Amino acid sequence: MAFDSLTEKLQNVFKNLRSKGRLTEDDVKAALKEVKMALLEADVNFKVVKNFVKEVQERAIGQDVMNGLNPGQMVIKIVNEELIRLMGSETTEIKLQPGSAITVIMMAGLQGAGKTTTTAKLAGKFKLKGKKPLLVACDVYRPAAIKQLEINGEKQGVEVFSMGDKIKPADIAKAAMEHAAKNKNNIVILDTAGRLHIDEEMMAELQEIKEAVTVHQTILVVDAMTGQDAVNVASNFNDKIGIDGVIVTKLDGDTRGGAALSIKAVTGKPILFYVPDAENFEDYRGLYFGFDKLPGPAVSTPEKLGELLKDLPGVAASCKEKYEKAREQICPRDDGKVCKRIAEVLLDGKEPVNPIYLNQTDKVKLLVYAGDFSDTQETEAFYEFLNKVDYEHFDVTLIGNGAKEEESSEKLDSLPKEIRVLYWKRSYPATDEEYVCHKKFMKSKKTEVPEMLLDFYRRELRRMIGMSKFDYALVFTDMKKFFPAMSGALDVKQIFNIENWQNLLKC
Description:
Layout lengths: L3 H15 L6 H17 L4 H15 L2 H4 L4 H17 L15 E6 L6 H14 L4 E5 L7 H12 L2 E3 L7 H15 L3 E5 L8 H13 L4 E7 L5 H12 L4 E5 L8 H10 L3 E4 L3 H8 L16 H8 L2 H7 L1 H11 L7 H11 L15 E6 L7 H12 L5 E7 L4 H9 L6 E4 L8 H12 L7 H15 L6 E4 L6 H6 L6 E4 L3 H4 L3
Parallel strand pairs: 1-4, 1-5, 2-3, 2-4, 5-6, 6-7, 8-9, 8-11, 9-10, 11-12
């Protein structure tokens, strides 16, 4: 994460200072030399580092510090104060127009900085605060830019205004203002085009937009991975179009954080918002539950985190009921008797007590198998099912596997977000006798599953779904007998297939 390496290096410097009883001027200069190297390695601009070290040195090499009772601690305090001054000691919010007046925010930046994604997320945050934002697609050059904004806008539940890629961005902005006035949108956010580098054409277009509509806030989006060059980018944008603040993205990547320090120092403009890795987890990894379901307060800024840390007992007291509910749901068996119960299950064959289910819901619980997504009638029926199923009524779990694993994985990733996917790697942990019986059954024309295999299939299901219970099973394949047979080991009301799956929707 950003600043991790810098923090570690500064801590080592401070550790050495604390170990000294008295400090000499040479001690201070040697420590500040290490501070200077740490900042430069963190990609802080050279001029910023030079001025920072000069300010600290002038304050640190003074009679009050050198002759104090704890000079090492005093130097550390000075470095801390200067860093706070460098970054800004106060939290700055994006200024909005009073009352019902429309606030126009223009987002600018180079291509690839994450401007479009960040623009939508910013709109989502305004919506949560009770505002009615409108996203405007002014990037008419980059392929699929408009579609990307529409997809991200949909994720945030925010309307997107678009006129295609044949209209000038300035004219789109003007039309968007008329639309906003008619539909009572009080925040208009313009997603403008970026370039791979700063050029006159891009700057002229941004200036033309500013001439066409009144822009109240111009926000520059900067990729933290840019490093030293982020300063040049911010300075150029500020000089040519004027910026009111900066949003720094990709701070969760392989970045050293210096860009954030440098931009604030060089431009004098506040860093209004930074994007950590929470959104990446949500977009690319998925979440077990939403941030709103967390048992305690969720914060996204160091300042807010600091406020909570000041009164942890108070936070714990206010969230006591939520914590208890979460503990019962997530770790109900954390009572000191886990090993005893494991031994009982393994040695005595006892069923687990109070099992945890992956589908703790009041909906109709459905387990689905759709094969390997080959171009077959079964796959077509599966996609038809996806279009017709009511996810407000059904909780759907899909067993995903396939011979063409790469292709199958891509198709699994494109499924509706409401579907829970369990990936099945067929390893068949069976006894020799069970395995032989299984092979014979697969090759035979028999449909009734031998009792021996039922135990095997139950174990295989348990391995995939744990102790979770289902109301119905749905099998979209007639090509293999294994999963239909394995589904027969489920304690479900009914198993549906390609011929009668329509009847399932009536349940």
